[in-house]
Amino acid sequence: MCAVCPLRACLTVGRCHHHTPRHLHKLHYPAVSGNRKYRAKQEAEQMSTAQIDHILKANEYSHAFPRGPASHGAQGFHSNLLSANQPCEDSRSSASCLVDRHRSVGGGALLFGVFDGHAGAACAKAVSHRLFYYIATATLPLKTLQEIESAVEEARPVPPLLEFHQQPREEQRCGAQQPLMFSSRLRMFWQDLLQEAQEDTTALLDTEGSNVSSALEEAFMRLDNDLSMEAQLDLATSSPRRVPNPGDSHSLSSPLRVALSGSTACVAHLSQGVLHVANLGDSRALLGVQESDGRWSALPLTQDHTAHNPDELHRILGEHPRSERRTVVRHDRLLGMLMPLRAFGDVRFKWSKETLGRMYESSRPEVVAAAMNMALRRTMTQNYHTPPYLTAHPEVATHRLRPQDKFLIMATDGLWDLMHRHTAVQLVGEHLTGLRWQRPLSPNPGTTLGSLQSLLLERKGRGLSTVADLNSATHLLRHALGNDGYGGVEPRRLDKMLRLSPNHSRMYRDDITITVIHLNEPDVL
C-alpha cells in the first residue's frame, strides 16, 4: 500500500497524487494477429498451468475446526497471500483463545486477522503476532487475570492463552530482546486492568469478562500505545553513534522501526455464534449471505477509514481547529501523505513536534531508512500543529450469525482494488457450491440408475469450473488477477500479472492477503 508517500514507492493503482495513475487495462497484451514467429515466441514464454499454480498456491493455507461448541459456528477457513512489494508488507494471523470468558478450556473464541503494512513490513509483522494476545487478555474475566498474575509472581507455569493456526513466518526474524519486552508489556496491561477494576466497583461485578466490543477497542489502543512507548524508550537509550551493518536484525525489527512504519488491521472475533469485527484502515470484511432464492448477496461489516468516507472525513476534521481544515487532509491524504486515517504505528503522525525533532536529529539507521522526501517532510512539518492526527481506535461491528450467513471474507485493499465485493461473494458462493458437488456421492436406497446417471452428469458439469482450486482464497486470487470481465479467467492476463518482475508488479497491484472463514457449511473442507 502506498500509504506514506516517499516518491520511491507511490505506485498504488489510481491512488497517489504524486504520480500519474496506472491502470490494469494499460497492461500490454500481444495482438492476436501478426507475425507467426512472434506469436509462437509469446506462447513459448507463457508459463505452464503447473507453474502458475505453484505461484498462486505457494502461500495458501487451510484449516478445519472440529465439530462442536469449540468451532463457534465456523467449519474452517482458507487463506492465501501474494506479494507485490519486496519484502511483502501484508501479514495475517489466526488463532483459538484457549480460555474463554466462561472459564471453559479449549473454546474461548476464534480470532482471524489481516494486516496491511506501509512504509515497511515491521509494524504489520509485530501487530500480527502481538495483537491477539492483547485481545485474549482484554476479554478474560478478572478472576482469571488474577490467577495469571499470581502464577507469574510465584514463578509458576502460566497456561497458554492462544493456539496459533497460522504463525507468521517472519516471527523468527525478531530481535532477541523483543519477546522479553513484549512479555513485560503484556503483563503491565493485565496489571492495569486489575488496578482499574479495584478502583471501579462496577468492574468487580464483571466476573464473566469484559464486553467484547470494548475489549477489542482497548486491546487495539493499548498495543498501539505500547509500540509508541517502546520506540521512545529505544530512541532514548540507544547510542546515536551506533551504526549497524546493513541487514542488522536489530535495525530491521527494532521498536523504532516498528513504530515508524504502520499497519491497518481487520480482526474478526467469533465466539458462540456471535461475530465481532474490529477494523482500522482500508482492509475490509464482508459476509456472504445466501438468500432464500439461492442468490448471493454481500453484507459489509467494515467501512474504509479514508478521506473517501464522508463520516471519517468529518470525524478527523472535527478533532482539529478550523484553521487546519485545509491542511489536515490534502489530496485525500492525512497531511497530504498518508492514505488511511486510522492505523497502528506511524508515529510521525502521533508524536509531539519536540519528540519528532529529537528523532530526526538522531543518526539512527531506522530514521535514515524511513526518512521521507525532504520537501514533503518540510511541508508536513509546516502543517503539524495539533498532534496526534492519527488514531488506532477501531470501529467494531457486531453480528449474530444466521443460517443464511455462509462465509466471511477478510482481505487487504490489494484485493478490493481489483474486485468488487459483490463479485467476491458471488465467486466464493459458486466455489463452495462446486465443492459440494465434488464430494463423494451417497445415493439414497431408492435411487434408480437413470436418476443416478443424470445426477452424475449434473455434478460433472457443475464441478468443471472449480477443479483448479480447492482453496476459496486462492480461487479469489486467481480471478482477481486474471479477470476477463465476464466472470472467468483470461489465461494470458493471469500469466502477465504473475510474470511481472518485483520492480514492476507494484506498478499494477498491491500485496493481496485473503482469509475466507466458512460458516454453517458442513463438509466443505
Name the CATH superfamily classification of the largest domain: PPM-type phosphatase domain
Structural class: alpha+beta
Overall number of structural domains: 2
Helix content: 25-40%
Residues in β-strands, percent: 15-25%
Number of strands: 15
Mean pLDDT: 81
Morphology: globular
Number of helices: 19
Write down the Rg.
25 Å
CATH level 1 name of the largest domain: Alpha Beta
CATH architectural group of the largest domain: 4-Layer Sandwich
Which topology of the largest domain does CATH recognise? Phosphatase 2c, domain 1
The main sheet comes to: 7 strands, antiparallel
CA-to-CA gap between the ends? 32 Å
pLDDT < 50 stretches: 6-34, 38-42, 101-107, 170-177, 204-209, 243-250
General description of the model:
The structure is a single chain. The protein is of the alpha+beta class. The chain has 2 domains: 406 residues, PPM-type phosphatase domain (Phosphatase 2c, domain 1, 4-Layer Sandwich), CATH 3.60.40; 73 residues, no CATH class. It has 19 helices and 15 strands. Strands 3, 4, 5, 6, 7, 12 and 13 form a 7-stranded antiparallel β-sheet that branches. The protein is globular, with a radius of gyration of 25 Å. The two termini are 32 Å apart.
